[in-house]
Amino acid sequence: xxxxxxxxxxxxxxxxxxxxxxxxxxxxxxxxxxxxxxxxxxxxxxxxxxxxxxxxxxxxxxxxxxxxxxxxxxxxxxxxxxxxxxxxxxxxxxxxxxxxxxxxxxxxxxxxxxxxxxxxxxxxxxxxxxxxxxxxxxxxxxxxxxxxxxxxxxxxxxxxxxxxxxxxxxxxxxxxxxxxxxxxxxxxxxxxxxxxxxxxxxxxxxxxxxxxxxxxxxxxxxxxxxxxxxxxxxxxxxxxxxxxxxxxxxxxxxxxxxxxxxxxxxxxxxxxxxxxxxxxxxxxxxxxxxxxxxxxxxxxxxxxxxxxxxxxxxxxxxxxxxxxxxxxxxxxxxxxxxxxxxxxxxxxxxxxxxxxxxxxxxxxxxxxxxxxxxxxxxxxxxxxxxxxxxxxxxxxxxxxxxxxxxxxxxxxxxxxxxxxxxxxxxxxxxxxxxxxxxxxxxxxxxxxxxxxxxxxxxxxxxxxxxxxxxxxxxxxxxxxxxxxxxxxxxxxxxxxxxx
Length: 499
Fold this sequence. Notes:
A hairpin with an 8-residue loop joins strand 10 (277-281) and strand 11 (290-292). The protein has an 11-stranded mixed β-sheet. A 4-stranded mixed β-sheet has the order 2-1-5-4. The protein folds into 2 domains: 1-361, ANL, N-terminal domain (Rossmann fold), CATH 3.40.50; 365-497, GMP Synthetase, Chain A, domain 3, CATH 3.30.300. By secondary structure, the protein is an alpha/beta fold. Helix 11 runs parallel beside helix 13. The chain contains 18 helices and 20 strands. The protein has helices at residues 4-23, 26-41, 45-49, 58-64, 70-81, 116-134, 164-169, 174-177, 184-187, 192-203, 215-229, 234-237, 252-262, 375-389, 425-439, 441-448, 464-471, 489-494, and strands spanning 95-100, 106-111, 143-146, 154-156, 159-162, 180-181, 208-212, 243-247, 267-274, 277-281, 290-292, 298-304, 326-333, 340-351, 354-361, 365-366, 373-374, 393-401, 411-418, 456-459.
């Protein structure tokens, strides 16, 4: 429909006004969510087990409900899978979002009828809010693509189960389906490269205006489009393409390359979705950080990241957090997750309204020598130099080299795939190392104290990370390479791809 953007404009404005209202009173919104969750949770097996009837305050809640990961909640999930109702949340889940865990194997995260609006509604609100604030709504009048997992679902204990991105495909309203691409049949293809070829075939001559997906796989889509069409830039193929929506990874390492493929800079909307809930989204184009989704069925807690493995870590609600502190993110939601550690770390960049940035994963860090380097630090250290020197980074990851085969002091080993190999890797190493010392004082002390030698960059062959992901069965979808790890598993797997 050519005039869809005109019809939706007042809806978009109302959504933006609602976001303004609750974000200006985010602490009050969180307190309201807290009370609502407790009232429903008291009707469940989990609530009875944890004395929800005794909880009156957040302090009471912290006493009654410990922090847990999936292993801690798994016994309750198993009861749901065995047919029991009112276990974590009243009734039965509408879906299970299936995710891969590193220690728990496959995880089954419940989605309920109460929590579904948090997932799909927030995605819609982020896009409509962009329209209202920017005045740009032409993307509604053309085709949109959401690069996602298969919408085919399996039955687990009578509950439809699949990847979250695949489940969301079932929630798309009828008015949007006429705009959505690719076709259902193409979305069901499991093999990523086969799926990508079919997506290219279906969209090659379409009026694409909005593209959504995680950056590394969108880059593959762009490159395949250009290869197939013979065009120089995506803008020549899709002249009305105006909005890129993404989440899951930091866009900045990919921005230069993606915009070079498009042939121009286009607006982007960052989101922070997870199987456990839609955490935050970009509410202002020029603001740093993502707006915490404080009024959407999730009560958030925050634990200083360096305390997350303590037996009794400090736990803070939104009204108690500070800017500039690295927190582990804990959620309690209307799908029945309680005191649940989702494994991410965040840092607030403002409190009124509450905006944050994702700094990494609790388990993705390097601290082989006590330095506790996190994802945000390695990204900022490399990207600042790359941007200054006009170097395009395709992908990278970092690991400790504790026992160098060549001898000498240990170091941090950076595996980097460049779009074009820099002429002087040694100079690049020195600049990035200087930035790392500015990012992390413990790293600086180790280098200056001659415990570590300066970092080492290992350039990789073209498509090294794609080939590596393919060997792991993780090519495409929502899969991504960790920016850093405290072991050598990924590093050793990447070694054959070195130049």
